[in-house]
Amino acid sequence: MLSSIRLRCSASYGLRSYHLTNMRAFDELRKLEIFFMEETRRGCSVIELYELVQHAGNILPRLYLLCTAGSVYIKTKEAPAKEILKDLVEMCRGIQHPLRGLFLRSYLAQISRDKLPDIGSEYEGDADTVTDAVEFVLLNFTEMNKLWVRMQHQGPARDKERREKERGELRDLVGKNLHVLSQLEGVDLDMYRDTVLPRVLEQIVNCRDEIAQYYLIDCIIQVFPDEYHLQTLDVLLGACPQLQPSVDIMTVLSRLMERLSNYAALNAEVLPYFLQVEAFSKLNNAIGKVIEAQEDMPILSAVTLYSSLLKFTLHVHPDRLDYADQVLGSCVKQLSGKGKINDTRATREIVSLLSAPLEKYNDVVIALKLTNYPLVVEYLDNETKRIMATVIIRSIMKNNTLITTAEKVEALLELIKGLINDLDEPQGLEVDEDDFEEEQNSVARLVHMLYNDDTEEMFKIISILKKHFLTGGPKRLKFTIPPLVVSTLKLIRRLPVEGDNPFGKEASVTATKIFQFLNQIIEALPNVPSPDLAFRLYLQCAEAANKCDEEPIAYEFFTQAYILYEEEISDSKAQVTALQLIIGTLQRMHVFGVENRDTLTHKATGYSAKLLKKPDQCRAVYACSHLFWLEDHETIQDGDRVLLCLKRALKIANSAQQMGSNGQGSAGSVTLFIEILNKYLYFYEKGIPQITVESVESLIQLIKNEESMPSDPYAESLFASTLQFMEFQKQKGGAIGDRYEEIKV
């Protein structure tokens, strides 16, 4: 057995082969331990056995045998466990070869783990028994770490990468000692603070090895209880600036803060302790010292540290906005002098930093209270500012957050100016059109989340929006102006009627003032160019002025709409649509006097007659008939002009029929005649004396004559439906039924 162990332990293998050989050797040694234990039960002296194995020829097999015999010695309790363990850990100094020494001490840690003189252990001794156990583990840990670090400096420089890989595979052998310490019942907070942590940190700092320092600091954070970390923050954080500059301290501290955050989240009763030990101040100071000690620390690492600290603060001290603002202020100080941050990973981390308050509070209003928040945004490049602005808007929309004061709106628009202002864009920058439209639509939706019940404050809000939107560049106006106009029109509807307003014309916010404001906004649109949009908005404003009984203002808006129609809208289809809007809006207007209304209706009928296509002319002209008869307004009931429009429509339909008869038939004009018939029936039903039975009958006869021409399924269906409607009205009886009875079909 001894020769087999000697062969396996003294052979020179690669790391993987050596590791497998030792695992097999450990299995054999466990069997040997059982054999030794049986021999002691048969009367063999364990003391003699312990001395006998020390006569083995080679030192490495000798020490493995000594550890095995020592394990049996402890089990027999013929000597205090602390004495045997002290002897074994000292004897293992005889192996200074890094790889062999690591595995030897790993075996020692393995066999002694359940034999430490801990509290409650069967091997517990006097009052200082725990101290002896801790001393043994710490001594073994120190020696193992020295051997592990020594591996880095053996062999040629060209093998450095291979050595670092091997060290990474062996690190758990060293870290297991810290795990053993964390499992000892006797290692309470006092012992951890006074003995364990200082000794371990001393070894970590003094080894001056990047790999060892990073791994072992991380081990401390992971294996010991969160309560211990909270109570010893100053000691643990005090070691961080003393680590090698190349150590990834960013990840280490981030994990520490993450653990403490989770600890606070799971145990609300411990939150007062965080304030008691001043955890935030200690972490903030430690981060500052680490950054100061590592002058060449990348900006990514610094920002990541502050991002982790902010998330810790938001979880542990959500009510302390001053803490969060202090973190952002420290981040601004670190970014100062760096200019715009172009590192993609760094900017992504800054976005994460700025998103943390939004995700925590679900209220952008709270983020607006952080004075350093916009200062951090300023260090982002234009592209990342747009991303951050989108994040802010999404948060507002998701949580239905209302921004209710002009001051907060101003601060918000400064934060999202990456989406509403393009004055600083570099020349030649190409932006994806779909992305641009999506961004601007999000800004448009945002406008409706800026609201205050007080009309004066609301007017201040829309004035601020106007200031920012009008400097946003022409491409953005067609997206941002319409929601601003709609929001302003909503404000007008909330204004008290002049008679109910105690301030009357002296009020700071009046309908006249708001309409002037609207006119200034819409005037910017024809230059975009978006004349069709401006045209629609002018008509909406005119209708709003109508409801406020502001005739001069309504007339001015209609005038502006007419100017745009004449000068900017040239496409025939667009003209048809625009004219339909004019007629529909003008029909609902009741504020105009006779002179103004005549002027506007005359213009509308004139536009109708100038459309390019005859069918469009016909339909526009018979639609104008509704401008001269409003059932609820006796002052707007002119049967003669209604009849004139309908006759003019018939004339245009006849003209269309003549143009279409040249080899094409007159099916299209038949449809026009049927549509005009429906208008005749509408006004006949309203009792307009100028619309007589004879005129209706003659039109019906004309349509029947035209049906002998080439068939049109749509026209036939429309005419059949019209006749069916007339029959239905007859059957209803009453005054309307009597009128329809007079019509002979």
Walkthrough of the structure:
- The protein is an all-alpha fold and 745 residues long.
- The chain contains 37 helices and no strands.
- The radius of gyration is 45 Å and the shape is elongated.
- Belongs to the VPS35 family.
- This is Vacuolar protein sorting-associated protein 35.
- InterPro entries: Vps35, Vps35_C.
- Pfam families: Vps35.
- It is a peripheral membrane protein.
List keywords for this structure.
protein transport; elongated; Vps35; mainly alpha; Vps35_C; disordered N terminus; membrane; 745 residues; single chain; transport
In a nutshell, what does this entry contain?
By secondary structure, the chain is mostly helical. The protein has 37 helices and no strands. The N and C termini lie far apart (124 Å).
